[in-house]
Amino acid sequence: MPTNGGGAGGTPDLLPVAEARSRILAGLTPGAAETSPLAEAIGRVLAADLAARLSLPADPVSAMDGYAARSEDCAAAGSSLTRIGESAAGRPWTGVIGPGEAVRIFTGAVVPDGADCIILQEDVEASSEEDGAIVSIREVPQKGRFIRPEGLDVTAGDIILAEGTMMSARLIALATSAGHVTASFYPRPHIGILSTGDELVSPGDTPARGQIVSSNATYLSAFVSACGGVPVELGIARDRPGAMLDALRAAPVPLDLVVTTGGASVGTHDHVVDDLSSTGTELGFWKIAMRPGKPLIHGRVDGIPLLGLPGNPVSSAVCANIFLRPAIARLSGSDHAPEMIAARLATGLPENDRRQDYLRATLSHDDDGLPQATPARQQDSSMIGVYANANALIVRPPFDPPKSAGDMVMVLRLDPLL
Amino acid sequence: MPTNGGGAGGTPDLLPVAEARSRILAGLTPGAAETSPLAEAIGRVLAADLAARLSLPADPVSAMDGYAARSEDCAAAGSSLTRIGESAAGRPWTGVIGPGEAVRIFTGAVVPDGADCIILQEDVEASSEEDGAIVSIREVPQKGRFIRPEGLDVTAGDIILAEGTMMSARLIALATSAGHVTASFYPRPHIGILSTGDELVSPGDTPARGQIVSSNATYLSAFVSACGGVPVELGIARDRPGAMLDALRAAPVPLDLVVTTGGASVGTHDHVVDDLSSTGTELGFWKIAMRPGKPLIHGRVDGIPLLGLPGNPVSSAVCANIFLRPAIARLSGSDHAPEMIAARLATGLPENDRRQDYLRATLSHDDDGLPQATPARQQDSSMIGVYANANALIVRPPFDPPKSAGDMVMVLRLDPLL
User: What is the CATH number of the domain that holds B402?
Assistant: First the structure.
């Protein structure tokens, strides 16, 4: 039996956005960990803590160009040392520095055994740049200064990255420097994408009167990829009994989540209810307290979590940002919280009703350099052109009082790639 | 002859960061346009304006559920009409509405010819949901209201996306809805990545004393991919004459830019000068007024633009954000301006010297919800662990006076993937 999302009363309540999101996420878990190359790990999430295999630096190294020596030999300005070798990055001097001896050293080079100070090159007078040169100290060095001790940055064995960390290029660099080539990651989730509706034609086909080009699948496919998932396009299911189930079951790979668009409108609703209910699992047709966003379908089909977005491209896109993006993050082993910022309204807004409103807007900066949000003049949810050219959504809570130009509102930035 | 970046005086001046960036970008242009599928276009840049092939909507459509009729037949409450058909999304009613007739209509469905108003379903009493039903009007409809005219969102022939636009999922949806399957894009630039230095071992190999694992190429490869380029790894060139040129010339594909790391330090500097100067083109060893960031190499090798970053992983990563990211954008046909935000300092900072400083920092929110920047306690540019765990860089201009906790600073957010 389909269930409504709301309260226990006769008229189903509207389900708050946050509650809907919590319920969607509650049913999702990442797949089994797999070992993968760090070089291909950008955006992926660690499935286990990662410990450093190497210390950084692995040996004490010089932070400056100069001479390595024993501090007891450099206690007075005017002392002289004999240069006995050179230590450069990648070409360490491998002996032990004895009394009265110094080794020429460069930034990043290993400090030779026996040395405990670095004399800056500008603080000496050297008779030549050859071994055997006499090096006179003009400025007494400080013991340990300009020496980066072993493990200053990272110590072998220490946990450098925690389970659940999403890999950036710089974290990949850290793991690589610490001796790793691969790591244990959660798999990228496979997200099935299925459009429904007789009014749709595939991109490239010419729509007859009353038909429209299906853009939701193309949108969601790009969206899923940019969020780190693997999109699996399942085509367009027509408005006939069984079409949706047939398409879902024809998926070429096991799916972690199925996203459908449409199927909750007059005429198609019944097929979807019948199709999905026939799989014997509980299915919710939620009326969410948000605009745009028609009833959201939620449940499982053949054990696979299903999220049914509205067929309207703008509603579908807004719901993808609010519900699908955190769902993909959860399936990938991480969390996604939408990033909200405060901005000044460029124009006033009327009182809001009981639905959380997501107004298409342009986020810019006012003359003082502060964030300013300008709502699009037309908020018709049929207008994909308006949505596509927005870079933010003004989020108005239910029953938000009227706002004037200059009032503060909360704004959800749309990711430049989404 | 190598040239210094600075002024005309005897001692070369430090080159300001913005000036260095301008000079780097000036030599870069995108490749020849190519036609590619929109479905794979996320992050790509349009090489030509894109005009809509279809209007959206293509016909007048209803914005509500109700009945389509002629407004002259609905001038008074109590008027009756005869239902003669149904128009649903994807299943338009194709006749012409005559006097006294109405067509049942649903949101998104084509408004039949002859009709000029929509009577909301809650504003009528209908004798049945079958054709032939008598529909009594309780509330007089307004002519044109709830009808989305043809082209409301997009008009066929209009430019919907301009040359230079970077494609997001939502812009892909717009172009798809407007009838496109492909578009003209600038190619993704191929970026050669070459590390130099005897101190480097490849990831997976065990460093001997004084050696380190090469992480720059892994970092830059992930960085280039995330910025929309195609990384071409050229390996590690050792510190011997000709090694760098040999590696560059062994590139398996034509390159749009070569990025090297290292090669400007003592011992290796001379080979690089000799190697690159032998190609007969002007080469700059710039001392940039920034920290971290040692001399930057800039020029062309065999006609290919070359950007030589420092070998130090932190310096290399900072320079990649400041110079390489806009360079990849320019080669891709777009622009990238680093996103700077103002934040309060959590701790004080001493006066800055003549170099623009990029301090590794954590950007968070203070108790008032305002951005707060906490500089890492250790700013040693050898510490990749500190850099990898930062999420922002505090940018301090040359000669910035001392700052106290609570003072405002400008902060460059590090992209979560970079």
Answer: 2.40.340.10
- B218 within some domain: yes
Looking at the structure, do residues A274 and A326 belong to the same domain, yes or no? yes
Which of the residues A53, A165, A176 would you substitute to probe the B interface, choosing the one with the greatest number of B C-beta atoms within 10 Å?
Answer: A176
Same domain, B311 and B180: no
Digit-by-digit pLDDT tens for chain A (418 residues) are 344 443 333 345 789 999 999 999 998 999 999 999 999 999 999 999 999 999 999 999 999 999 999 999 999 999 999 999 999 888 899 999 999 999 999 988 999 999 999 999 999 999 999 999 999 999 999 999 999 999 999 999 999 999 999 999 999 999 999 999 999 999 999 999 999 988 899 999 999 999 999 999 999 999 999 999 999 999 999 888 888 899 999 999 999 999 999 876 555 556 777 777 777 667 787 889 999 987 888 989 889 999 999 988 999 999 999 999 999 999 999 999 888 889 999 999 999 999 999 999 999 988 877 899 999 999 988 899 999 999 999 999 999 999 999 999 999 999 999 9
Please report where in the chains the tokens 């690589």 appear, as a residue. Answer: A176
Tell me how far the alpha carbon of residue B120 is from its chain's centroid.
44
**A236 and A311 in contact (C-beta within 8 Å)?**
no
Query: Do residues B20 and B293 touch, judged by C-beta distance below 8 A?
Result: no
Cβ–Cβ of B215/A173 closer than 8 Å? yes
Is the domain of A83 the same as that of A107?
Answer: yes
Residues B6 and B99 in one domain: no
End-to-end CA distance of chain A: 35
The answer to whether residue B318 sits within a structural domain is: yes
| pLDDT beyond 60 at B243 | yes
Q: Are residues A279 and A235 in the same domain?
A: yes
Show residues of chain A in contact with B219, CB under 8 Å: 169-170, 172-173, 176
Residue B418 lies in a domain: no
How many structural domains are present in chain B? 4
| 8 Å CB contact of A58 and B198 | no
Per-residue pLDDT tens over the stretch B389-404: 999 999 999 999 999 9
DSSP B244-312: HHHHHHT-SS--SEEEEE--SSTTTHHHHHHHHHTTTS-EEEE-BSEES--PEEEEEETTEEEEEE-SS
Looking at B101, B132, B148, the residue that finishes a domain is B148
Q: Report ipTM (2 d.p.).
A: 0.90
Q: What is the pTM of this model?
A: 0.91
Measured in degrees and rounded to the nearest 5, phi and psi for residue B374 equal: -110, 110
d(CA A69, CA A143): 10
Q: What is the CATH number of the domain that holds B171?
A: 3.90.105.10
Give yes or no for residue B172 having a pLDDT over 90. yes
| C-alpha radius of gyration, chain A, whole number | 32
Give contacts of A387 with chain B, Cβ < 8 Å. 170
Do B302 and B223 belong to one domain?
A: yes
The answer to whether residues A266 and A306 belong to one domain is yes
At A212 the pLDDT is 93
User: Which residue reads 């974290």 in tokens?
Assistant: A171
Both B197 and B326 in one domain: the answer is yes
Cβ neighbours around B145 below 10 Å, total? 14
Cβ of B61 under 8 Å from any chain A Cβ?
yes
- Taking the C-alpha atoms of residue A214 and residue A200, their distance in angstroms, rounded to an integer, is 5
Could you list the residue range(s) of the whole structural domain that residue A362 is in?
340-413
Residue A202 domain flag: yes
CATH number at residue B106: 2.170.190.11
Concatenating the DSSP letter of every residue in A197-240 gives -TTEE-TTSPPPTT-EE--HHHHHHHHHHHTT-EEEEEEEE-SS
Tell whether B292 is within 8 A of chain A (Cβ).
no
